Amino acid sequence: MKALKWLLAIVASVILLLVIYLTVFFDPNSFKPQIVDAVKKQTGRDFVISQDLSWSFFPTLGINLGGISLSNPENFSPSTLVEVNQAVASVALMPLLSQQVEIAQLSLDGLTMNIVTKKDGSTSFDGLGGAASPETTTASEPASSANTLELQSLQIGGVSITNTTINVIDEAAETKQIFSLNSLNLGEFSLGNAADFAYEFTAQMPDMMLASSGNGQLTISEDLTQVIMADLTINTDVTGEAIPNKSVSSQLITDINVALDAKKLDVAIKQLSAMDISATGDVSLNYGATIPKINLQLDVGDIDVDKLLPPSETEAKAEDTEQVAASKPAVEPDLSALKTIDLTLGMSVKSIKVANLLTQNWVMKAKVKDGVADLTQFSANLYEGSIKATAQLDGRQKVASYRFDETLTGVQFRPLLKDAADIDLISGAANFKISGSGKSLIPDNLKKNLLAQGNFEIADGSLYGVNIPQMIRSAQDKLKGDLSAKNTEELKTDFTSLTGSFSLKNAVATNPDLAMASPLIRLSGNGSANIDNETVDYKLTTSVVGSLAGQGGEDALAGVDIPLTITGSMKDPKFGIDTSALLDSKLKDETDKLKGKLFKKLGF
Question: pTM for the full model?
């Protein structure tokens, strides 16, 4: 026991003598000139320590620094690269003897960095950090390895970082960006236990301003292999002319788990809300592979894209895009980045409204790997029907290629066409199938290079803009000599079925077998639609199978094929009847009847 007391007394005496020596005979400020000269020699920059250095010894060993600055290169403005108002670091002395680190305080206040890029391309970092010689590196490596300290425990009384500002100045672009960490605070922390933390951050950029604050709990495992941020809540406000509606607020509540030994990151998105959009999901990242593997699963609520940008801004942006596209030659997009992505995506969306087109109950599964993006599953409900699709984009070659298959089932066609393309042409429950492929993603080439084929069937619908029975009745009246007949009925033709197949090549869709059936008429025909200039050219043949005048009526055109035409733009097609062809057909029919009667009388 006496020996232990003597040992403690000796240790205390040594510490006391060390403190007396450092405070009375050793002045750390006497080394300031040597430190300044060493930094000047290494970097060529002026290094200033304007405030006196001060020590703390017991129960903590610490140092207080202040008034520190490092200059930018000559003729740079601002003249300083780094400024620090105050930095304090204090470590509990006694636990160090047992390889335990207890940091009583870490604080940094008033750090300012001015990162400048001049018009000639020179930057604030030019000339900093000389490379160590091979001899120095080789000699120092064994010493570093031999003196590695095995950390038994780590405790931090608190960390405080305040008033940190980074100014990024680009003189060529005449821009200045200001990033400010107003505060970052970490409460009492030890390995294996959770510690509260919070931050406040702002950024001023040429086209927007950002303000973000957050808080949560930080846990680092005792073996330093796992980092957990639990209940991390981040609130962000972004404002600027380029931001939808000039202002966006968002909130993210998440748990983050980083397994350093397995090189894996897991993020649980408990809540994500922005612009009236809410989502939950999970993200996992395996960053140990050569190409990081990402798995993203999202469940999203309602999305109204039409509300994100006012119509006037949308139209203005579209006009600007068209002008830029017209002034610059189109080039193939570079999809080489797809080779560096290994992504698995699963997403469900309650509803999406875009350009006034509403879809619901989205389910999508996709994968990006080795330069190929695969949409393996897509389904959604729209206009009382459903859509299913698969697609692939191959970006391994300089000119990308693609393919797709799409099926519509039971979709009400009239509201779909009106909302999607502002076309009021046809109604009915539509079944539609199309498969296609092509190369090149340049807009003009998309239309020209796309090869596709498919078929359609529309039941219990109407053609709008034309009343075929009325057109026939008018033609019938003209054949009877009544040229005063007027069309006062609604321009609509009802049908029970409309079917056909089509192919697409060189931006022209060709339909060789259009067939329409209704109680009064039968219609068949063929024609084409030019997607490039949005025009249509159809030749139709109509036959009367019922009484156009009502039950029991007689029609002079019964059994006569009536030629019809559809021409003009897709948005405003022109329907007509080929009267001359109709007269030729009627005359031929009457002539054939006359010949029959004559031959019969002559006994032939």
Answer: 0.73
